[in-house]
Amino acid sequence: MNAVMETNKNLIPYPVIVLASDGDAEAINAVLNHYKGYIKALATKRLYDDDGNTYLCVDDGLRRRLETKLITAILKFDAE
Fold first, then answer.
1. Any idea where the domains of the chain sit in the sequence?
2. pLDDT by residue for the chain (80 residues), tens digit each?
3. pTM of the prediction?
4. How many angstroms separate the CA atoms of 54 and 60, rounded?
């Protein structure tokens, strides 16, 4: 039962999902904030300099495209 409770702590509350799908800006921002780390991880690229050193860099263009796709999906979602 503890595993179920731990999983539920990471979920977005249903009323927030309903508000976000209706276009509420604060609710959409709450959903974006919830997925912020995941989007950042997806948009992270590995870059190499001339000496072969590795650097991790967040591609801001890709990050914005992922956020836009998430917002589009939120607005298309039928919560009820």
1. 2-76
2. 566 656 667 899 999 999 999 999 999 999 999 999 999 999 999 999 999 999 999 999 999 999 999 999 999 999 77
3. 0.81
4. 19
